[in-house]
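G., the chain you wanted modeled:
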Amino acid sequence: MKIACVGGGPASLYFSILMKRQDPSHEIAVHERNPAGSTYGWGVTYWAALLDKLREGDPESALAVGENSVRWSDGVAHVGDRTTVHHGDEGFGIGRRRLLDLLLDRARSLGVRVEFEHEIAADLLPEADLVVAGDGVNSALRERHADHFGSDITLGRNLYIWLGTTKVFDSFTFCFVESDHGWIWCYTYAFSEDHSTCVVECSPETWRGLGLDRGSEADGLALLEKLFADVLDGHGLIGRAQADGSAQWLTFRTLTNRTWHRDNLVLLGDAAHTTHYSIGAGTTLALEDAISLAGALREHADLESALAQYEQERKAALLPVQSAARHSAQWYENLPRYIRLPPAQMFALLGQRHSPLLPHIPPQLYYRIDRAAGQLEALRRFKRWLGPRVARTVQARSHR
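Predicted structure as tokens:
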């Protein structure tokens, strides 16, 4: 096959690696409009299950990714002057730029042609048997056929900003600070030996009250450093990790599409779907898209059949993740409901924020039910059964 990947993100690069391993005669080009090394972003997170899948697909790149990742197993939450620790599953962090460099080197070693500063016009697609739109949430290729793909974007309520810091955290750390204008919080995790990611979030009212909607980036960073001084231990915050602009406050856009392919054009990664950053699954889902698409193309000689299988498989896999992400975002949007609980209870419900049942039960009652469910299998099964049904009932009423 002749394959053109538009967008040089992790999904496009990993898909090209898998396709070259399946058949070295495939002619594959990856077209990235930005210069090499200009990616925006700090670190990305993933879990051990993804590393296992990467080993199955390409042991060499999986080894490189694992060796260049940092690991943690604890979660720590600071709420004002209170701290609680949760011992959980092992997580991994890796710099986005480092991940891209590793996949780029591997793709080129297999014969993939990667072209930087090469923008593909949406109305002039490359001549190829398959065109992969891996050009992100703002995909120009998808937008040209927006009616066909049936794109839908839902805006979140809270504001967030993606920053870096030289403070290296040894746990996945949450810090909640009460200001004169409401709560503001950050999620932090290491992704290298000398840097961590720091995502800051707050309500629109707090954002405006603190003056973060006004002034320069430097003023904003100075204020955030003051607010999070205890957890940063004297380290500063760093704005955008490239020279073409400053760090931006954003509202998260959840993207879904009715269909993921049109003729020989198929959507991949953020061009097809997004999930709220608070569940840390974006990169994992994009790489799983690449694995699924390569697998479907291996199983079906007919392109339409392969793309239909890929779409069906990934949509089904995404349903529970998208639900979890939606409830996670809503948990933070309703933070005052939980933040006054005793630290251990608050952190326990932070871990349960994906539950469709949690928003409809008083938090302390939910905590007691959850503790009891951990001891009684019958109650645990009832809780799993009841949650989705309550959520569907509430959603149906809200649309009347």
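The first strand starts at residue 2 and ends at 6.

Shout if anything looks off.
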